Amino acid sequence: MIYDRIENLERYKGLPDIYEGLVFLKNATAETEKGKHLININVVANVSEVSTAETNPLDFEAHKEHLDIHFPLNGEERILVCPVENLEQYSEYNAETDAVFYRNPGAKTVEITVGNGYFAVLFPNDGHEPLLCAGKPEKMKKIVIKVKI
Known about the structure:
- The protein is mostly beta strands.
- It has 1 helix and 12 strands; from the N terminus they run E-H-E-E-E-E-E-E-E-E-E-E-E.
- The strands form 3 sheets. It has a 6-stranded antiparallel β-sheet, with helices on one face. A 3-stranded antiparallel β-sheet has the order 4-8-7, with no helix packed on it. Strands 9-6-11 form a 3-stranded antiparallel β-sheet, with no helix packed on it.
């Protein structure tokens, strides 16, 4: 996992696909259109309107073919992160969506808050439970960058 401020994106020039995704995030505005934006052959930005909540009914998710960069354009979102080997898998891997889901049977997690300039890069071994409210539930415009690895 990488947790940093978007203003520090130059630190990631040595990771070209991640860097290109971060450049997209830095240049995104509230007017950035919803939907998929192809950044390069390995990098896609998914812009959506979402709502945070007290809990996420899907619990933790992880991916095998991509890493995620999470970045709300407005508001804040809490994400719980835990190594997948400490979680209990409850779904089969879906290659079409590149997702597998897990429950947390009491494993220790790290809680981060993204938004207001903070982003998180989540690698395939980082089980993550996104869309949790940081305070009260809110609607937000969010970008998730998918980087093929």
